Amino acid sequence: MKVFQTICRQLKSSKGFSVEPAPCVVFSTSSYLCGRKKKVNPYEEVDQEKYSDLVRSVLSFRGHAQAPQSLFEEDALLYGPVRKCKAPKQEEEAVPRNWCPLFNPEKSGKPNATSDPTIPLKIPLQRNMIPSVTRILQQTMTSEQISCLERWKRRMILKLGEDGFAEYTSNMFLQGKRFHEALESILSPQGNLKEPDENLLKSGYIQSIQHVLRDVSGVQALESAVKHETLKYVGLLDCVADYQGKLCVIDWKTSEKPKPFIQNTFDNPLQVVAYVGAVNHDINYSFQVQCGLIVVAYKDGSPAHPHFMDAELCSQYWAKWLLRLEEYTKKEKNQNIQKLD
């Protein structure tokens, strides 16, 4: 039936010829077929004679396809010439202008055999105009670090209130101080210090570092001041001792959150390498240190995370520390100029 209707439409479109197809009658006993409306094809209602010339002109067009070059020319005319973007340059690592080596070639890598190994160095920190490691790191924090610290402070104040937050920070400082006092009593030779507080020795922080203390020996310095003679900065290191047979600057830290990776310790590696470099260039220390160790202890007594820094890793952080030191020096210089103005 469809074929027949198609032939009729073609004949009808021809000039001088007209055929009227006879109506088709279909008998069916099915109620579905009787009640179903005939589906009308919308194309059958189009006036084919009216649009025949248009269809004929479209079908008879034999123009050439647009070449790629002409497309580019047309785009350039409509939208302007194409601007080729340069590949982004890879950021080169900044290099400190005033380079100072981390290790001192004039020093021995081992403690002096003539010194008394049972008496660790404990040099008091002299308060003077020379900046401390802590101050340099605080004054050169990145904007991201500052905003993160501010968010934490606002969150804690919202939770505890102004007075509660002040009490919280005071307690944290006191806990850290007692933790270091307990460590000093543990690592010092017997009889050099007063009897340690039993409550401190039973605290969660001390229990947390027991597995680390088993690998610590040959303590050379405790709570001792250091000064870098060339770069002019000072600091107070926690400990210099052997860890698993390697002489290290050891920094003891407390935390309420787990810090299983060295990246979680923020600026602590920079603090450690700053002390390493200072020890190596301080005339009060006859030995040289090539490694560092950050130990993060937990209040609940869970095993502490020790982060060992070998000579290569220390060298990498040393370059970053020198950049922070340069930034601090630049800021201080600008502030002094502003004061004079």
From TrEMBL:
One BP term from GO: mitochondrial DNA repair
Identify the EC number(s).
3.1.-.-
Domain PD-(D/E)XK endonuclease-like: residue ranges = 147-325
Extract the Pfam families matched here.
PDDEXK_1
Q: Where in the cell is it found?
A: Mitochondrion
**InterPro entries listed in its UniProt record:** PDDEXK-like_dom_sf (IPR011604), PDDEXK_AddAB-type (IPR038726)
Q: Where is the active site?
A: D238, D251, K253
Superkingdom, taxonomy of origin: Eukaryota
Q: Name one GO cellular component term.
A: mitochondrion
What molecular function terms (GO) are annotated for this protein? single-stranded DNA 5'-3' DNA exonuclease activity
Decide whether keyword Methyltransferase is in the record: no
Keyword list (alphabetical) reads: DNA damage, DNA repair, Exonuclease, Hydrolase, Mitochondrion, Nuclease
Main subcellular location of this protein, as a coarse class: mitochondrion
Q: What class of enzyme is it?
A: hydrolase
User: Does the keyword Signal belong to this entry?
Assistant: no
Family matches, as HAMAP family: MGME1
Family statement drawn from the similarity comment of this UniProt entry: Belongs to the MGME1 family.
Q: What does this protein do?
A: Metal-dependent single-stranded DNA (ssDNA) exonuclease involved in mitochondrial genome maintenance. Has preference for 5'-3' exonuclease activity but is also capable of endonuclease activity on linear substrates. Necessary for maintenance of proper 7S DNA levels. Probably involved in mitochondrial DNA (mtDNA) repair, possibly via the processing of displaced DNA containing Okazaki fragments during RNA-primed DNA synthesis on the lagging strand or via processing of DNA flaps during long-patch base excision repair. Specifically binds 5-hydroxymethylcytosine (5hmC)-containing DNA in stem cells.
Protein name as it appears in the record: Mitochondrial genome maintenance exonuclease 1
Protein source organism: Physeter macrocephalus (Sperm whale)
Write the gene name. MGME1
